[in-house]
Amino acid sequence: MRARILSTAAVAAALVLAQPGLALAEEEADDPSTTVTFVVTSGALTLSVPAAAALGSGAPGTTISAPIGPCTVVDARALLSASWTVTAAETDFVNGPSTIPAADATYTVGSVTTTGTITVTSTNVTLSNSAQTVLTGTAGVGDNTATWDPTVAVNVPASAVGGAYTGTLTQSVA
Predict the structure, then answer these.
(1) Which superkingdom does the taxonomy of this entry point to (predicted)?
(2) Which end of the chain is more exposed for a tag (fewer CB within 10 A), N or C?
């Protein structure tokens, strides 16, 4: 009887060794692995605006207005939770000794086009020599952009002297 038990055990061992899947399973368990890493790069928060804008012309007592051209915020910081604010300030408009105050002008944001994930809120303002918030980006994730074409309107006082007036509109993002 003892010989029969050994021959049954020998047959069982031969069957196990003849099974290719069992031997393969042991080899797979010993396969080497590779750790893969990479870096997502980040950039800066920038604002591009037109270098110059001509609003046109009009008589004293009228409003002169025009879009100034596209303005774009590019947020390439690749943040998990991004936010930014755009401000605008205007100097007084000067024509030689004549001045039209910055407060006689308005900044209307208009429609805003975005890419990526960002929630943008706009605020139309009466311009002044002090920076005022015109656009706020919140709940940003990763890289995003916002583009708008604001309209600047100047209420020309009835007492304005004829000639070309120049002021500087300063926009910034932070």
Answers:
(1) Bacteria
(2) N
